[in-house]
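Sample intake sheet
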Amino acid sequence: MSNDNENVEEKVTLINQDPNSDENNSSKLKTTDNKASILKLVVLSLSSFGAEFFYIFFDMYSIPLQLRAKIPISLSTFPGLIAIVIGLFLTPVISNMSDRCSLRFGRRRPFLIVLFIITLTSVAIGTFGRTIGLSITPGHYLVSQILIVSGYCIGMITGITLTTIVRAYVMDAASSDMQ
C-alpha cells in the first residue's frame, strides 16, 4: 500500500510540474556557466599581457637606447635579428622542457617565473646600460654598448619564449570547450 501511495505522489508531482521549468533551469545554468567561463578566459588572457607588453615595449624602446649609446644606426636592428634567430631555435627547446616538467609547482609556472625574472633583469640592463657603462668606464661607450645590446638580445629572446610559454599555460588552464 505504501508503494502505491508513493507512485501516486510521484505522478501527481510530475503532472503539476511546469514542462518548461527544466529548460529554464538548464538555460539559467548554461548562461551562468558561459559568463564564468568567459570571465576565466579573460583572466587567463590577461596573464599573457605582461609578456607581450615587455616584448613590444623593449622592441620599440631599444633603438633610441642604442642610438644614445652611440651605436651606429646601421647596426641598431642587428641585435633584434640575432635575438629572433636564437629565439627561433631556443623556444621549442624550452617549450619541450616545460611540457616534460613534473615539479609540484606545475609544468609551466617554474619556467614562467624564471623567464619573467630574466626578462625584467635584461630590460633593466638594457634600459640603464648606458648609465651603468659610463659609471664603470667614464667617457667610453664600449661597456655601455655591450650592456645595451646584450640586455636587448636577452630580453627579446626571453620575451619570445615567455610569450610562447604563457600561451601554453593559458591553453592548459582553459577548459576543453574554451579551446
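Comment: The chain has five helices and no strands. Helices lie at 2-16, 21-68, 78-100, 109-136, 142-173.
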